[in-house]
Amino acid sequence: MISFRQKGDFSKVTSYFEKLKETMRLGILDKYGREGVNALSSATPVESGLTASSWYYEIEHSNGSAAIQFYNSHVNKGVPIAIILQYGHGTGTGGWVQGRDYINPAIQPLFDKIAEEVWKEVTSI
């Protein structure tokens, strides 16, 4: 006859698997973060290339959820260049340079891809 006894619980194993699952989710967010930076970089209007090469992302955690935030670090005299390219800006001589909507068309396919993947994950349970 074979028997065994077990003391305690499986909390360490459960904790390990929860951390592993979270790491896998972060890997997916990291993948989409890189894709978003590539999409934004290639869609950014290029004069010097500095704004296009200044895109980056961060994965932020809050209350059990995570989000990808995209940023552009090219700032000239306190002005975020990516924003004025998007929305337009006044000139020093009283003129106006019309903005160009390049951010939304660049990032929308990525949002659609994320939504599709999440939907598949949710409906496969």
Largest sheet: 2 strands, antiparallel
Mean of pLDDT: 84
Q: Tell me the domain tally.
A: 1
Work out the radius of gyration. 22 Å
Which ranges are low-confidence, i.e. pLDDT below 50, for 5 or more consecutive residues?
none
Counting DSSP H or I runs of 4 or more residues, the number of helices is 3
* Residue share in helix: 40-55%
Question: Could you say which overall geometry the principal axes of the C-alpha atoms support?
Answer: elongated
SS class: alpha+beta
Strand content: 15-25%
Distance between the termini: 40 Å
Number of strands: 6
Give the neighbour order of strands across the main sheet: 1-2
Order of helices and strands: HEEEEHEEH
Question: Which labels suit this protein?
Answer:
3 helices; two-stranded antiparallel sheet; about 120 residues; alpha+beta; about 20% strand
Please provide a written account of the structure.
The chain is built from three helices and six strands, in the order H-E-E-E-E-H-E-E-H. It starts with 10 loop residues before the first helix and ends with a helix. The mean pLDDT is 84. The chain has one domain (11-123). Helices cover 49% and strands 21% of the residues. The protein has 125 residues and is an alpha+beta fold. The longest helix is centred in the first third of the chain and has 33 residues, at 11-43.
